[in-house]
Amino acid sequence: MSGLKKELGLLQGMGLLATSLLGTGIFVVPATAATIAGQASLWNWLILIVLVLPIAFTFARLGRRYPHAGGAPHLIGLAFGAGAERFTAFLFLAVLPVGLPAALSMAAGFWHALLPLGGGGLWAVEVLTLLAIYLLGMRGPRSSGNLQLLIALAILALTLVVWFKGDLDWRQGLPAFPQAPSWPPMASALAVMFWCYVGLEAFAHMGEEFKRPERDYPIALLGGVLLAGVIYWANSVAVLTFGHYGSDADNNTAVPAMLADLFGEKARIVAALLGYLSCFASINIYLQGFARLIWSMARDGKLPARLGHLSRRGAPLNALGCVLGICLASISVISWFELPLATLISYANGNFVIVYLLSMAAGWVLLPRIGKWLAGLSTLLCLAVLLALGSESGYALLLAALYGIWSLLRRRSKARQSVALIQRSTD
């Protein structure tokens, strides 16, 4: 079975990660953070980058040392065995029915701002989005990387235009460091802002497709983290300057409202289109990453061999089709029953943090010297975030309990089969 095509370069890698981290967050999170912590939220972006960098460095070192399409589950399996790899893959795939449909709904919502779409129309947009991801996947990772690099550059250009037209100054983004009374709301805002950096684990699946993973993968990862952080910070400065935050409605329309203030009402169309593309980019890298996880497990004999087939362009289309099929079924059920998407996507948060936690613990086992200590620090940071989640980690903990019960029953079944074979051989 041949391997994935190595055609990603440094710029495509940075584009893939930056757009994955920006996603829908760039249009909502700066205003939400400003609502919670005010001017102090500007310091939070700097604090968040400092907190995320050890995790990013650990992923970078792991990806450079062990480039593999299996991503985080493969790394965790190297450190803790096949059972841990299966459990992590299970957590990953369990995000598909809850997190991805909510993200697709957010993407379709931007079209709702342009056209009068009902429930059926929004569902059709979601289906067409899945079709576009499949068609993009047919062309291989380089096409995804090029498209997402363009989207990242468009978001950066939009941010620069807002700064130039609004006559903003970078010194506005560095107010005096907040006093102690501001620290509790800063902590609350930081918990929300952390989810802007959920996406590193999806990027880990792409390491095997870099032309020079030992050089370009870690630089692309760290460059994408810093680029996304700067764009988030710059948008937060603009949101606070123009005052477009406060209520949920204000937070959700902050960027279109800023553009309307600066360039007129037609600028809202630009914001809606760019918002959709940003969502599309984030969803694309996740679904392509899931496909590579399934493909790598099939390649290693852990899933049916059909899922390990590659197209002529070296793309795992069978695995991608399987992932998109699960998403199609999920969005159809959610649309039919009108399930609360905000609640569903919050369920996925615990899954991601546990994957991060296990990945950092794997780094402690697998990496030498300074990499080991960075991984240890990152493990403690992820553990703190998991504890801070509280009830939102319930979905992940329930999945862990169900997986534990299934594993126990599986071991007992194998033990009975072994005993039965022994008894037959002695008769």
Topology:
Elements: H1 10-22, H2 25-37, H3 41-65, H4 71-80, H5 82-93, H6 99-112, H7 119-138, H8 141-165, H9 183-193, H10 200-203, H11 213-242, H12 248-252, H13 254-263, H14 267-299, H15 317-337, H16 341-366, H17 369-389, H18 394-426
Number of helices: 18
Radius of gyration: 22 Å
Q: Note the run of SSEs as H and E.
A: HHHHHHHHHHHHHHHHHH
Q: Report how far apart the termini are.
A: 42 Å
Mean pLDDT level: 82
Helix content: over 70%
The amount of beta strand, in percent, is under 5%
Largest beta-sheet details: none
Helix-strand category: mainly alpha
Low-confidence stretches: none
Principal-axes geometry comes out as globular
Number of strands: 0
Please give a structural write-up.
The chain is mainly alpha-helical and 427 residues long. It is 76% helix and 0% strand. It contains 18 helices and no strands.
Keyword list:
427 residues, mainly alpha, 18 helices, 0% strand, globular
Concise structural overview:
This protein is mostly helical and 427 residues long. Helix content is 76%, strand content 0%.
